[in-house]
Amino acid sequence: MGRGMTAESVRLASVAVPAEHGGWSLTLEPVLLGLLVAPGLPGLLIGVAALFAFLTRTPVKILVGDRLRELRHPRTRPAARFAILYGAVTLGALTGAAVADPPPPTWWALAAAVPLFAVQFAFDVRARGRRLLPELAGTVGAGAFAAAIALAGGAPVAVAAGLWVVMALRSLAAIPFVRIQLRRAKDKSVSLAQGDATQAAMVAAATMAWWSRAVPGPALAALVALAVFHVAAVRLPVPTTPIIGAQQVVAGLTVVLVTALGVLAP
Q1: Residue (of 136, 153, 157, 149) closest to 214 by Cα position
Q2: pLDDT above 70 (res 1)
Q3: Closest C-alpha among 206, 220, 216, 210 to residue 266
Q4: Which of 102, 118, 247, 253 is deepest in the core (most CB within 10 A)?
Q5: Where are the alpha helices (DSSP H) in the chain?
Q6: What are 148-193's pLDDT values in tens digits?
Q7: 3-state secondary structure of 106
């Protein structure tokens, strides 16, 4: 325990701050991409709502999970307070975005992601949120924020849908890779062939999306480079967990920036 850290602050942090460090990046990357492609006040407010919805998930899953297991811990009351606080900011930001009157497809994009978030939450409250399915569902759903923000800023529906595709493919490549690296760090068995197949499938899907003009060429190039890095990295000595996380932050920002440039370039 660090200097000045108390048991109370540790307990509060456990209910107020998500433990999934990679979740921060995979939630904020779509927000950044949407704002780069089509900036505006409604999109910014949707981005704020996305951030606080991500924060809300932690205390809410604690509350619901404890209720399902008929448990009551000292963390229950602070979890309820943080859930109310974060939830209020989320609803306030969405209300502000609605008042700004963005195009109707903005809300369709968010509504389309609700089933994916529901799958993730159903696993979360049963303490199974670290499984592959809920992680993929949540991160693919988060890609809807890029589409919604772009739509709110006046981007065409086809462009917004392409942004969601890019973010979904980035997540589908990153999560299996990180899981392999974390298993390697713990000296557990891994299937490199299965990991390679995942990266190949992502590249194939990205190529089809580019061929159908759903995503720009630079986005395809960034996703292919990401897959090549993943295939190579699992065959090198595994780095520490913070390094793995930093690599993914850099990779995600690269995909976001290159995709935005590809969309905005004449």
Answers
A1: 157
A2: no
A3: 216
A4: 102
A5: 7-16, 21-37, 41-68, 76-99, 105-124, 132-152, 157-185, 192-211, 217-233, 241-264
A6: 999 999 999 999 999 999 999 999 999 999 999 999 999 999 999 9
A7: helix
